[in-house]
Structures are given as structure tokens and as C-alpha cells.
């Protein structure tokens, strides 16, 4: 049989972003385009450091703690610096919030009209074992004439774009500007992200659940009852468990295969663990754009109004029917 020739009309991320901008009729502005192109470059740069980490002595601790009181890894610090510098240099950003920095960064004298919230390297407890990690980001538009922290203390439904880059067996950037979700794979030889997953849609129901069940002892009854319902179903097969402990990887799999990812609040962590602005919101934005559902258990995640930039919220997201099943357990409990 015939062998298919390699594709020659590649859709690079830059080409994709430009065509979406044209579709919106914003030929003149293009600020969001330039901003997303800057994020694209940071992803390539971080990917290259993650890949070489063991070889160039980038594994291990940097010797400091971040805002959350967690040890910072050398790669956390480096990835943060890469993003802050590139976003600042883009000239398009007025406000930045990073998981690694306590205060919001207000870019002085910036004519930028966007705010970027990000976790430069999420899942970093996985780094030293070479397991997947990722960058998560969300973008808001500045409200007034200059940027301030109030511009990012806004619900996720006001984000104009969100995405993540996964550093795994391949490097994948997944992006939504509110026109569906599109996935790109880094071709290292070309140095370009190529569109490999156009129009990602989450299956309406999956067969996988992804929770840190080691915390079951602390979980509230609705979480445990829901988990029991999929492990000991009245009809059909029990769900499979998959939990990497890197949100980007666990959400990436959930977007592609379906199922449910959860990081609940529990008796020990009153708001859960995941940070609203730069973990929960971008992933909820992508999930909804892909046709799935993202809830705190009692509320749509994207409608939560953050009170402070590092605030947390419970997260359950994934296939529509799976998350609706979970919501019933919460509704019955309240
Ligand atoms: P981090 O920002 O300190 O890396 O923590 C966030 C990570 C997420 O990627 C992941 O979903 C979660 O923490 C895993 O937490 P746990 O180890 O408690 O299961
Ligand atoms: Mg994180």
C-alpha cells in the first residue's frame, strides 16, 4: 500500500494565532497576537531547560520558599524569570501575577492593555523524576487606563485567553482564545509549535477518574460517596484511576480521553489546594471551551470572584456527564 507523504502545509501556532486575529477583524491591533507569541517563546525556552535539567545541574532546590511557603526548585525560579522578562519585553502587558511572586507585578510606564496570570512551572514536585510538568496561563484585558491588581481580581469568565504548555514525552501547547480549544506539538527541529489537535472536544462521558485518593480520610462525604459510586457501580465497569500529580498532565489527559479530574476541598484544606487565578480558571476556561464542565462542587468555577491573587478553590472538571454526576452528590449534601 501507498505511504502517505509528509504534510507540507503546516499550521504553526503563529499562523493559527494570526488567522484567529483576522477572523476577529482586529487587523490593526494585534496586541493579543504579540502577547501570545511571547508566551510561545517562553514555552520553548522552558521546555529546553526542563529537558536538559539533569544535565546542566538544574534539578533540586533553589534554597528559598515561595509565597505558598513551598520550597522553590531551581527550575521554578528560572521559569518564572523567563516569563516575567519575556512578558515585560513584549510591551503588551500591564499586570502580571505569578505563583512564584507574592505581589502582583505592575509594569510601570507600560502601554500594554493585557494582564497575564501564570504558574510558570506547575507540578514541580515531579521534576526530579523526569515526570510531566507544565506552564499554565490566563489573560485578562486591562479595564481602566492603567493596570492595577483589581484588573485580575475578576472571575475567570472574563479571561480573553487561557492555555497551558505540557513538558512531557512531547511538548504540547493547548490554547483557547474563546474560539474552541486547539493543541500544538513542538517540532524541535523546526522550533515551531504545529497544530496537531484542532478543535479539542471532551467526550461527554469518560472512564477515568483522577483524584489524590490518598487524601480520602480528609475528604467530605459527597466526594467520597461520588468516588464510591464510580468504583463500585451498580451497573457496568468501575472507572480506572490515573493520577500524575501534575495538573497540566492530568487535565491534558482528561481533555483528550474524557473522565473527571478533581482536587476537592477537605477537612484539612478548606479551599482545596489549587490556585484560582493561574490554575483553576485557565483549566476551567479550556474545559468549558472543549464542551466540558468545571465546578467547585456547588458553583461554576469561572463565576467565582477571587478575593486575593493567590486564593484557592476546589476543582472538579472534565466530561459533562461525569461532572454532572458529581454535582448531584454535592446538591444532595447541601
Ligand atoms: P504546585 O503548584 O506546587 O506544583 O502544586 C500544584 C500541583 C498540581 O499540578 C497538582 O494537580 C497538585 O499540585 C497535586 O497535589 P498533590 O500532590 O497534593 O496531589
Ligand atoms: Mg502550581
Automatic annotation (TrEMBL):
Q: Which GO terms describe its molecular function?
A: fructose 1,6-bisphosphate 1-phosphatase activity; metal ion binding
* Keyword Magnesium listed: yes
Residues in domain Fructose-1-6-bisphosphatase class I N-terminal? 11-198
- Which segments constitute the Fructose-1-6-bisphosphatase class 1 C-terminal domain? 202-330
> What keyword terms does UniProt attach to this protein?
Carbohydrate metabolism, Hydrolase, Magnesium, Metal-binding
Q: Name one GO cellular component term.
A: cytosol
Per its UniProt record, the required cofactor names are: Mg(2+)
Its UniProt pathway annotation is: Carbohydrate biosynthesis
Q: Which PROSITE patterns match?
A: FBPASE
> GO biological process: any one?
sucrose biosynthetic process
> Which top EC class applies here?
hydrolase
Per its record, the protein catalyses: beta-D-fructose 1,6-bisphosphate + H2O = beta-D-fructose 6-phosphate + phosphate
EC numbers listed for it are 3.1.3.11
List the Gene3D superfamilies.
3.40.190.80, Fructose-1,6-Bisphosphatase, subunit A, domain 1
The entry's family comment says: Belongs to the FBPase class 1 family.
- Quaternary structure and interacting proteins, as annotated: Homotetramer.
Family matches, as NCBIfam families: PRK09293.1-1, PRK09293.1-3
Q: What is this protein called?
A: Fructose-1,6-bisphosphatase
The lineage is:
Eukaryota, Fungi, Dikarya, Basidiomycota, Agaricomycotina
Amino acid at each position: 500500500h501507498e505511504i502517505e507523504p509528509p504534510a507540507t502545509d503546516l499550521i504553526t501556532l503563529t499562523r493559527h494565532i494570526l488567522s484567529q486575529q483576522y477572523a476577529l477583524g482586529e487587523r490593526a491591533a494585534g496586541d493579543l497576537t504579540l502577547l501570545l507569541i511571547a508566551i510561545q517563546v517562553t514555552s520553548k525556552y522552558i521546555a529546553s531547560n526542563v529537558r536538559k535539567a539533569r544535565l546542566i545541574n538544574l534539578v533540586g532546590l533553589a534554597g528559598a520558599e515561595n509565597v505558598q511557603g513551598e520550597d522553590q526548585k531551581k527550575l521554578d525560579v528560572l521559569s518564572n524569570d523567563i516569563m516575567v522578562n519575556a512578558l515585560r519585553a513584549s510591551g503588551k502587558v500591564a499586570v502580571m501575577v505569578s505563583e512564584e511572586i507574592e505581589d502582583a507585578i505592575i509594569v510601570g510606564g507600560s502601554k500594554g492593555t493585557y494582564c497575564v496570570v501564570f504558574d510558570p512551572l506547575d507540578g514541580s514536585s515531579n521534576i526530579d523524576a523526569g515526570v510531566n510538568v507544565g506552564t499554565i496561563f490566563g489573560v485578562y484585558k486591562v479595564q481602566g487606563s492603567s493596570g492595577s491588581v483589581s484588573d485580575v481580581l475578576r472571575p475567570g469568565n472574563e479571561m480573553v485567553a487561557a492555555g497551558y504548555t505540557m513538558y512531557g514525552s512531547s511538548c504540547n501547547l493547548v490554547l483557547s482564545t474563546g474560539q474552541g480549544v486547539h493543541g500544538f506539538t513542538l517540532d524541535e527541529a523546526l522550533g515551531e509549535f504545529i497544530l496537531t489537535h484542532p478543535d479539542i472536544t471532551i467526550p461527554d462521558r469518560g472512564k477515568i477518574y483522577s483524584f489524590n485518593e490518598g487524601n480520602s480520610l480528609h475528604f467530605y462525604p459527597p466526594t467520597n460517596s461520588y468516588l464510591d459510586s464510580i468504583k463500585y457501580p451498580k451497573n457496568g465497569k468501575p472507572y480506572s484511576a490515573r493520577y500524575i500529580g501534575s495538573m497540566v498532565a492530568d487535565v491534558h489527559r482528561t481533555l483528550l480521553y474524557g473522565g473527571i479530574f478533581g482536587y476537592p476541598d477537605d477537612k484539612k484544606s478548606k479551599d482545596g489546594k489549587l490556585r484560582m487565578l493561574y490554575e483553576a480558571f485557565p483549566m476551567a476556561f479550556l474545559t468549558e471551551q472543549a464542551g466540558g464542565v468545571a465546578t467547585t462542587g456547588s458553583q461554576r468555577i469561572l463565576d467565582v470572584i477571587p478575593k486575593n491573587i493567590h486564593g484557592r478553590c476546589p476543582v472538579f472538571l472534565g466530561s459533562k456527564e461525569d461532572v454532572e454526576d458529581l454535582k448531584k452528590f454535592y446538591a444532595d449534601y447541601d
